[in-house]
Design goal:
Layout (H helix, E strand, L loop, with lengths): L22 H15 L4 E3 L1 E3 L2 E3 L4 E6 L2 E10 L3 H20 L2 H17 L1 H12 L3 H26 L10 E9 L2 E5 L7 H12 L3 E4 L6 H14 L6 E3 L4 H10 L5 E5 L2 H12 L10 E5 L4 E5 L5 H13 L9 E7 L3 H13 L19 H15 L3 E4 L14 E4 L6 H4 L6 E7 L2 H8 L7 E5 L3 H10 L4 E4 L35 E9 L1
Parallel strand pairs: 1-5, 7-8, 7-10, 8-9, 10-11, 12-13, 12-17, 13-16, 15-16, 17-18
Antiparallel strand pairs: 2-3, 4-5, 6-19, 14-15
Helix pairs in contact: 1-4, 2-8, 3-5, 3-7, 4-5, 5-6, 10-11
The protein binds nicotinamide-adenine-dinucleotide (NAD).
Length: about 525
């Protein structure tokens, strides 16, 4: 594709994953890790109004496996800077919005290429700053590349006029325009992929953005902004205002020039943003659009006709991959009565074999949870769980300074229990017994969330019922409930899981566009 409007993008395919068991691949990954290690502790500026800024007030990011190790030092935005960032990105929005859509898409494919070139380096940053294992990090970097490639192609599609009915004597058109300037607020658990997806979708659609990264993972965000600059996105098209959500969050959301807020994170913060954004401020001339993708309490149903080994493997991978810190993580296994005991036995054996420790060591299946605060919250839930179920695995922490928690399973948990109802966001799984498949569906749907879910069954009628009655935005059949792939599994949930914007799907860019109808009398 060139910037002149001629498109030659090959059809989208998902990025392949590196196989770290290959010695030469692992050697390259280790070299990237060494290079990243040599950069630990560096300072990173803010970006606003097209230039870098410093404040001397630093946010310190640490390695959750060894919290005494500083990953990055990040200058924090003041309220005045956050206001300037908004004013400038708002002022620049019409210029960026007039850049031809195909040129914007070209910059995005260039960003994808730059991340691809630095793949192992980004893997290493995710291992060190977010506590991901190498395969989890590799999957995330692949997803970031996929978002860029996919949204570039979607923009090419939206750049074409949408066919509409042609009235006699008229030429009728529908075209898509950008919204203006929006705020991007991502979570820490996919600090590259979700940040990249939310940011690039808005940018490629012709909007300018002010990014407020998570305070847990600002270094990955700073590295991603480096990529966007290197790819050629104009410096004024994006601002990076690192800082505490509590200090500048409300200001960004409430500002009258803010046209939209794209948020991914917890239900609590998402609902607050939605409420604040709903109130028009002095001088505001639009209703703010809010995209809010929030939490989950995802269930896997294991039916009596399931392939039990594959179900156990799927539950363990979904519950404990990245320490259960995925919105899509399985936190409830709902198991049909006749196979309940056998399932528990197999589950217990598999969980006992999981390895936990510093993810820099490829032998570990699980790393740390993100922070001391997260560890405390999770341990409080484990305490509550002791009174709500039978602890059959884990329950404790690992010695040492890292935030490591054992993979933990409670059996015999009632649907009224807190550990069954509330999002724990850590390596804690409940197992509940269902009388039959109808009861299993009732239990699975007994939640205010509705993000992902899976059903293991070889019975086509059972599968058919799940398709109809399991109320989740992303349903998986005979496979794990994590690992949504861009393009194939557009992602987003029902009810309190959010606005169901379906990231990585064909409709996602519409969140950041507004349609204009033009009728010309001939
Ligand atoms: P969080 O809600 O604590 O924080 C998310 C972001 O909001 C962070 O950048 C944070 O700094 C910012 N923030 C906090 N207070 C703010 C305020 N008052 N104003 C503006 N911004 C504010 O969530 P988290 O701990 O970063 O992420 C974990 C949560 O995200 C879990 O609930 C998880 O299920 C959810 N999540 C959902 C999806 C999805 O697609 N549905 C994907 C990933 C994570």
């Amino acid at each position: 594709m060139t910037g002149t409007g001629h498109t030659s993008l090959v059809p989208f395919v998902n990025e392949p994953y590196a196989d770290f068991s290959q010695p030469e691949v692992w050697a390259s990954a280790e070299a990237a890790l060494t290079s990243v290690r040599s950069q630990l502790g560096r300072e990173y500026p803010l970006w606003l109004a097209g230039a870098e800024h410093t404040t001397g007030d630093l946010l310190i990011s640490v390695n959750p496996s060894r919290p005494s190790e500083i990953v990055g030092r990040h200058h924090k935005a003041t309220a005045e800077m956050a206001n300037r960032a908004i004013e400038d990105a708002h002022a620049y929005a019409p210029h960026w919005g007039r850049t031809p859509p195909l040129e914007r898409a070209r910059l995005l494919t260039r960003a994808a290429a730059l991340i691809r070139e630095r793949k192992f380096e980004f893997d290493a940053w995710l291992v060190i700053e977010a506590g991901k294992t190498w395969p989890e990090a590799e999957a995330e970097v692949g997803e970031a590349i996929d978002f860029c490639e996919y949204y570039a192609r979607q923009m090419v599609r939206f750049a074409e006029p949408e066919p509409v009915v042609q009235l006699p004597g008229e030429r009728d058109n529908l075209v898509y325009l950008p919204l203006g300037m929006g705020i991007i607020i991502p979570p820490w658990n996919f600090p590259l992929a979700i940040l990249a997806g939310m940011t690039t979708a808005a940018l490629v659609a012709g909007n300018t953005v002010v990014i407020k990264p998570s305070s847990e993972t600002p270094t990955v965000a700073a590295k991603f902004v480096e990529v966007l600059h290197a790819a050629g996105f104009p410096p004024r098209s994006l601002a990076l205002t690192t800082g505490s959500g509590a200090v500048i969050g409300d200001l960004l959301v409430e500002h009258p020039k803010t046209r939209f807020v794209s948020f991914t994170g917890s239900r609590e913060v998402g609902l607050r943003i939605n409420e604040l954004a709903a109130k028009p401020r002095k001088g505001q001339i639009w209703i703010k659009r809010v995209v809010a993708e929030m939490g989950g309490k995802d269930a896997i149903i294991v039916d009596r006709e399931a392939d039990l080994d594959s179900a156990v493997a799927g539950v363990v991978q979904s519950a404990f991959g990245y320490q259960g810190q995925k919105c899509s993580a399985c936190s409830r296994a709902i198991v049909d009565d006749p196979i309940y005991d056998e399932f528990l036995e197999k589950l217990q054996a598999r969980v006992a074999a999981l390895t936990v420790g510093d993810p820099e060591n490829r032998a570990n299946f699980m790393g740390p949870v993100i922070s001391a605060g997260a560890r405390k919250t999770i341990l409080n839930y484990i305490e509550a769980g002791r009174g709500e179920g039978r602890l059959i695995a884990g329950g404790g922490v690992l010695p040492g300074e890292g935030y490591f928690i054992q993979p933990t399973v409670f059996a015999g948990v009632d649907s009224k229990a807190r550990i069954f109802q509330e999002e724990i966001f850590g390596p804690v799984l409940t197992v509940s017994r269902a009388r039959d498949f109808s009861h299993a569906l009732e239990l699975a749907n007994d939640t205010e969330y509705g993000l992902t879910g899976a059903v293991y069954s070889r019975n086509p009628e059972t599968v058919h019922r799940a398709r109809q009655e399991f109320f989740v935005g992303n349903l998986y059949i005979n496979r794990k409930c994590t690992g949504a792939m861009v393009g194939a599994h557009p992602f987003g949930g029902f009810n309190m899981s959010g606005t169901d914007s379906k990231a990585g799907g064909p409709d996602y860019l519409l969140q950041f566009l507004q349609a204009k109808s033009i009728a010309e009398k001939l």
